[in-house]
Specification:
Blueprint lengths: L3 E2 L2 H17 L6 E7 L3 H17 L2 E7 L5 H13 L5 E4 L9 H6 L12 H8 L8 H12 L8 E5 L6 H10 L3 E5 L6 H5 L4 E4 L17 E4 L3 E3 L2 E3 L4 H4 L5 E2 L6 H23 L1
Parallel strand pairs: 1-11, 2-3, 2-4, 5-6, 5-7, 7-8, 8-11
Antiparallel strand pairs: 9-10
The chain binds guanine.
The site of guanine (GUN) has 9 residues, from strand 4 and helix 6.
Length: about 280
């Protein structure tokens, strides 16, 4: 079987071209705010990619950089400012946050129509109810990539590895909305191989390099790798790509798969926030 590599980079570029056209027709530039707290080195890499992408499509990016030892009040004040800033149409607070900060209180404070990541409880609830406004960028990007390659998930057995609010829970929900039968696995799952071996579609968001090995994958499965682990100077996914690609029908590479899709979905969400701000004004 010849495997198809799901090219997130090329798909993201197509979406960027379409976004550029849309943004150039607007009377004002959509603005994305990005809050970082502390010095998480991975966050710094992700955030600089997001800033560059904003600039490429003609959006403005406003960075708010808070110290590692910031207090809850410092972060809440930054959020209040962004909620009121009329040039910031949507914004995100990059996760993880330092341990003294309660992330759920922070996400509670984001105005739902400015919640470009779709992480606030209102938007999470809307997603749960099947109202698909401001979906979290990574799961939205995965669905878009599956659509791009016309991969129909209806009736298929999808096994999701990882249960985070950012990826695992929302992708399970979105796949189920598209009529997949979904199994969720996590760190306490007893026999991961037994589960993944049954999957028509595997979405791995464990963040553990190489956790998905060839003997855990059914022949012809679709394999989506959301994992990003730094191994020295290189970035590794959750999937043993070289071996698994000999078994899978479709597979995402790392880098160049889900990552670029996440960034462009954030831009799409920022445009949605911009459009909502015009309805509110
Ligand atoms: N940390 C890892 N992924 C993400 C993301 O998509 N958004 C935010 N805000 N933080 C993250």
């Amino acid at each position: 079987m010849t495997v198809v590599i799901l090219d997130g980079k090329a798909t993201a570029e197509k979406i960027i071209s379409a976004l550029k056209v849309k943004v150039s027709a607007l009377r004002k530039k959509p603005g994305l705010g990005i809050v970082t707290v502390g010095n998480d080195s991975s966050s710094e890499i992700y955030v600089s990619g997001k800033v560059r992408a904003c600039e490429r499509v003609g959006m403005t990016a406003k960075r708010i950089v808070l110290d590692e030892d910031s207090t809850q009040d410092d972060v809440m004040n930054a959020i209040d400012d962004l909620n009121q800033d009329r040039n910031v149409h949507g914004y995100i607070v990059q996760l993880p946050l330092p341990k003294q900060i309660d992330a759920s209180l922070v996400l509670d404070g984001i105005l739902p129509h400015k919640d470009a990541d779709g992480f606030s409880p209102i938007n999470m609830g809307n997603m749960m109810a099947g109202k698909n406004v401001l979906l979290p960028a990574t799961p939205k990007g995965i669905i878009r990539l599956l659509d791009e390659y016309k991969i129909d998930v209806s009736g298929k057995h999808a096994v999701v590895v990882g249960r985070s609010n950012i990826v695992g829970k929302p992708i399970a929900l979105l796949l189920q909305q598209r009529n997949a039968t979904v199994t969720m696995c996590h760190s306490m799952t007893k026999d991961l191989k037994k589960m993944t071996k049954q999957a028509d579609i595997i979405v791995s968001a464990a963040g553990k390099a190489g956790i998905i090995k060839a003997n855990m994958v059914k022949k012809g499965a679709v394999v989506i790798d959301v994992g990003i682990s730094k191994e020295g100077d290189t970035i590794q996914g959750d999937v043993d790509f070289e071996k698994v690609k000999k078994i899978a029908s479709y597979i995402t590479p790392v880098p160049g798969g889900v990552g670029p899709m996440t960034v462009v979905m954030l831009l799409e969400n920022t445009l949605e926030c911009y459009n909502m701000s015009n309805m509110i004004d």
